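This entry is set out below.
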Amino acid sequence: MMNVRNSLVVASLLFAPVLWANELTNPDLISKGEYLSRAGDCVACHTAKGGKPYAGGLPMATPIGTVYSTNITPDPATGIGNFSLEDFDKAVRHGIAKDGYTLYPAMPYPSYAKVTDEDIKALYAYFMKGVEPVAQSNRETDIPWPLSMRWPLSIWRTLFAPEVAATPTSGEIEDAQLERGAYLVQGLGHCGSCHTPRALTLQEKALDDSDPAYLSGGQVIDGWVAINLRGNTGDGLGTWSEEDIIETLKNGRNDHFSSIGAMNDVIQHSGQHFTDTDLLAIAQYLKSLPATEDAAELFKASDETATTLRAGGQPNRGSELYVDNCAACHRTDGLGASGVFPRLAGNPSVLSGDPSSMIRVILNGSRLPSTKQAPSDLVMPDFGWRLSDEEAAQLASFIRTSWGNKAAEVSTSDVRAIRKAISEEHENPMLSRAYPSQQH
């Protein structure tokens, strides 16, 4: 009897690799992995401008120098083709490379720690069997020594990266739909990587909704401010419906808001590919988040500005500039045109504590993402060529204090700093991708 049992154990050990190899080629598992890779927006960071998908090389400016994303195609020499499932899991959820060193937290492994074993297996199958291998060597960082030493990163990982559990979902949310939304937002979606403020040591101040700092916005990504995703009125999603959130994630716009900046890449590569069920789960979860405890009333609708402008009144230079440059699209009432020109009254990007997005869109314009359901990539033209720093500041200040908006005014020095940054990006566009900064 013992010999039979031993034989069965030996047979299972011999055939396990064969069974796993067969499972890797399962079309359903590969398809699931592709969907999950979209949910994680892996292509956005692991594809350089003009490069092949997942071949890496995208520069990311950090406070200590530039790092470059790695090749995650299944090329055995330069990519992850010789990674085992364990190697893959250690990199994605634990932040540990195959060679044993700690990855820079530009890779959001603190969020991916929540991803389930089953989803990691599906992702591995997709990257091994569903992605075209590309022979492209990884580029070394531009971080100077001694800052380039990796051992301090292991300390950072120990201090700030959460433990990885076999089934990381919390189980604390009774509603299955909300649980799914929390899993997508906190895990693969890694929304907190941009929308949660960071400490001076660059870790996110919270990784889930147990802390009111979670998703409270404020980080500057590629020069654009990530908005508050909590229930705040004005600079958050307090007045948004679930449908508003779904439409924004799917098409970059809703009846009163248009996405700008780095969020456009998320919508292009990730948001528009979610199923309707998952989009609803995300929307319901975000709407479940209360306003921050210190939420200020940044917007209370008022028709005073619209009445003044319609009557031909020009209370200040900012209002004159608005009528000359903006009112044709955004109207004198600041309500824009549904689904085409976003409203400026109560707009979270307008009311953000950091005015960088407001200044940047005035100086450099913006373009909506082209999606399957909304293919028109509508353009907001740039006005930096015709406005001085002082005029741009006056215009931004007028917009942030009109129609019931109650944000702080913008200074000329604020505009000057953004204009300089835009000029440097135009001179070296490959370095425009910035690592998330701590909250200003």
About this structure: The chain has a mean pLDDT of 90. Residues 25 and 81 are 15 Å apart (CA to CA). The chain is about 40% helix and 5% strand.
